[in-house]
């Protein structure tokens, strides 16, 4: 019985000064730079990339990726869907992979 009473008293003894000295939280506005969303891909097959990839990645970020083989782009698309839970329909993956593979194709 004595232990049951002691524990709440001990907790109150530690918590009381923190409650009395609680600081107020002050929120302030700040600005950040977000990726340029004005750049969109063009040409055949671009809609599927604009509708799926550019929702999270800037076009600039996509354009600075190295030339990757089709299998790597497919693995990246699958990772976005299954690991990061990107809302990309599985039926769009082949078109995305095709577009991105051709985007950096060798001349």
UniProtKB/TrEMBL annotation:
InterPro entries given in the database record: Cyt_c-like_dom, Cyt_c-like_dom_sf
Residue span(s) of domain Cytochrome c: 32-107
Protein name (database record): Cytochrome c5
Keyword Signal: yes
Domain of life: Bacteria
Keywords of the record: Heme, Iron, Metal-binding, Signal
Signal peptide: 1-22
């Amino acid at each position: 019985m004595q232990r049951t009473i002691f524990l709440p008293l001990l907790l109150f003894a530690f918590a009381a000064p923190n409650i009395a000295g609680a600081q107020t939280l002050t929120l302030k506005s700040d600005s950040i730079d977000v990726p340029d969303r004005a750049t969109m891909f063009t040409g055949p097959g671009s809609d599927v990339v604009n509708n799926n990839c550019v929702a999270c990645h800037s076009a600039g970020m996509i354009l600075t990726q190295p030339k990757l083989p089709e299998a790597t782009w497919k693995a990246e698309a699958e990772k976005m869907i299954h690991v990061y839970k990107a809302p990309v329909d599985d039926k769009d993956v082949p078109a995305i992979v095709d577009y991105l593979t051709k985007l950096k194709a060798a001349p």
